[in-house]
Amino acid sequence: MKALYGAALLLLLAARPLAGQMVVTNDTLDTERQEVRDILIVLRDSLRTVEAAAAQFQRGHQSASTELLYSRGRALQRACVRSVRNVEPARETVEAGAWDSEYRTETQKALLDEMTTLEQALLACDSVWERLASLDDPDDLRTDGPVQAESIAEVIHQYSTAVSAFYKALGIYVRPIGAGPGILP
Known about the structure:
By secondary structure, this protein is mostly helical. It has helices spanning 2-15, 31-58, 66-96, 102-132, 138-170; strands at residues 24-25, 174-175. The radius of gyration is 20 Å and the shape is elongated.
């Protein structure tokens, strides 16, 4: 009997979609806004790997072994390299939009400016972490590493704020799974 319940539970879990693989959105968007939303979500997801690597580096960096810090630094560098590849396709898609109001055009310009800043920060992240993760002096990694990790996290936060304003201007609502329909402005 337990085996039957176990098999039934396994079937239910297997049939249920994974929360991390879904995006709850409003489905009334035109094709152009859907394309913008989708490409920005790809960039957002890649930036989350950078944020996670930066947070992981900062966690316990004072007491972590030198080898662990080098490993975390290389992971952060690789995350920055992967993310920078997603900026240009997102920029091209956002630039291609011809919006019908001054507010939308202003938020588009602000987002494009933040994308430029983001791209520069990701490129700098690559070179800085390549240097830090290959140094023979772990003290430099321990002192400069947290500052650099915080720096890239701050740029990503500023970019995310610009994306939120852009989504709002275009009437694109992206909510996390389980948030329910809520009240949309």
